[in-house]
Design a protein that fits this description.
Oligomer: single chain
Structural class: mainly alpha
Strand order of the largest sheet: 1-2
Number of strands: 4
Distance between the termini: 111 Å
Strand content: 5-15%
Radius of gyration: 38 Å
């Protein structure tokens, strides 16, 4: 501040730090407390949600282990709130059923001696596995160089 006569004055105000910052410190402490409470309350919620999401994936991993051990005794019964996990479960169930049917077909064909019965069984199983209304098995006749259908 300038005073006539060429002198300058400075005005200073001194206040204790605690008194000056008490409101800001109180707001900071309340904010930290609220943040800690929110974090502590959300941890169990997040844990439960993660468990709900991950448990169908764990069951599917167990099903994959059963499939790798050629255990097709039970269907895949995994349901999830996530559409992609549900789709994976359905696909694994179909795969498990198809592999089981193919293995059954291989075992039954291994002991078959009659060619006509063998062709009929192959055609029937192909229709069943592919869920088709009809199927044709062709035999290659080497001497005539043609494919001959064997109808169902």
């Amino acid at each position: 501040m300038h005073i006539p006569g060429g002198h300058s004055f400075f005005v200073l105000m001194v206040s204790p730090e605690k008194e000056l910052l008490s409101s800001a410190i109180k707001i900071r402490d309340q904010s930290l407390l609220m943040t800690a409470i929110i974090i502590l309350l959300t941890i169990p919620i997040v844990w439960l949600f993660a468990r709900k999401v991950s448990s169908p994936l764990r069951r599917l991993a167990n099903e994959a282990e059963l499939i790798s051990n050629f255990d097709f005794s039970s269907p895949v019964k995994t349901h999830s709130m996530i559409a992609e996990v549900d789709a994976l479960s359905t696909a694994m169930n179909m795969m498990k059923s198809t592999i089981s049917q193919f293995l059954s077909l291989i075992h039954s064909l291994a002991g078959e001696q009659n060619l006509d019965t063998l062709l009929q069984r192959i055609t029937q199983q192909t229709m069943q596995i592919s869920e088709a209304d009809g199927a044709v098995t062709y035999l290659y006749k080497e001497k005539e160089n043609i494919l001959e259908p064997s109808f169902m």
